[in-house]
Amino acid sequence: MLQLQDKRLLFRLMFFVLFVLAPILDLFRIDLTLGHLVFFGLDWTLGLDPFLRGETGVGHAALNLFLRGLLPILLVGGGLLWLAWKYGRLYCGWLCPHFSVVEFINGLMWRASGKPTLWEHKSLPERQPDGSRHRPDPRYWLLTVPAILAFSFLWAVVLLTYLLPPVEIYGNLWHGELTRNQFVFITAATIAFTLEFTLARHLFCRYGCAVGLFQSLVWMVNRRAMVVGFDAERARACASCNAACDNACPMRLKPRSIKRKMFTCTQCAQCVSACNEVQRDNPEGSLLHWVQGEEALAVSDRESRHERGCRPARSDNILKTIELVAEQQ
Ligand code: SF4
Ligand code: SF4
After folding, report:
1. Is 226 in the pocket of ligand 1 (CB under 6 A)?
2. What are the boundaries of each domain within the chain?
3. Are 155 and 193 in contact (CB under 8 A)?
4. 244 lines ligand 1 (CB under 6 A)
5. Separation of 174 CA from ligand 1 center, angstroms?
6. N or C end of the chain, less CB within 10 A?
7. What pLDDT, in 10s, does the model give residues 175-197?
8. Which ligand is nearest to the CA of 237?
């Protein structure tokens, strides 16, 4: 049976393929040459042409604008926000093609240098959650650098196919006949993505992506939303662990922390899987779990109690100690 992370990998792979193929298959693209959307092979216009020709009135035009423009945006945006309100940034961790690149490059950099990003102060511990040892191998830079360039180029080309007919773009690329504007776009976007994927990929996920930011904001509003919860009463079990959950987090968060400090959590559950592995011989199992409702309230309430200046509970003290230790690691 597929493990949680295998399932996630499958979802991410399928969505990445969809992201690349959607314009080619005319599933979704904004064709600037036509001046409207193409959706599942159909021309998706705002239906304003009859009004502009003077054949219909303002009321008909406004209705078309609402039904063909505003309503689909509200439905898709509202659906995504509802999902985030209830389950957090599931889209980011399980589907987003940008986050897939983030994790892929993290993995390669970690193999090459022992650090998942260039900004990490120290190398991650060699001991892995399953007890095996990983030693950095600088030869992986020979894969990391081309992978960053390849993903940057791919992203640049795919983005352009969302704006101009894919047949034209891929045809021009194949024959080396890109127009000047197409060449400038692809070159500039490739350079920008190379810088971003190398230096600022987490920063983009945290603060640069509107889709991610709005998901985080609505998730924070719902204190009962799904969140990774830590069994603070069993915190002593962490003593023999080298903070495998912190090491596994692709967003470089501290998963045992309070919800506010996990504002950009992508619900990837890498921390949960790492703890499952560390505690595989422990009958009580992992100390980290997804929790919802009342249990999720406890993760947020720890924070509220601190903010109201209430005396912290015993488990809060344990948690505070863990946070301090984690920050020093
Ligand atoms: S805290 Fe856990 S679930 Fe959230 S991003 Fe980090 S590893 Fe993923
Ligand atoms: S929660 Fe699990 S993975 Fe994290 S430090 Fe404790 S034992 Fe290790």
Report:
1. no
2. 4-30+89-208, 46-87, 222-328
3. yes
4. no
5. 40
6. N
7. 999 999 999 999 999 999 999 99
8. 2
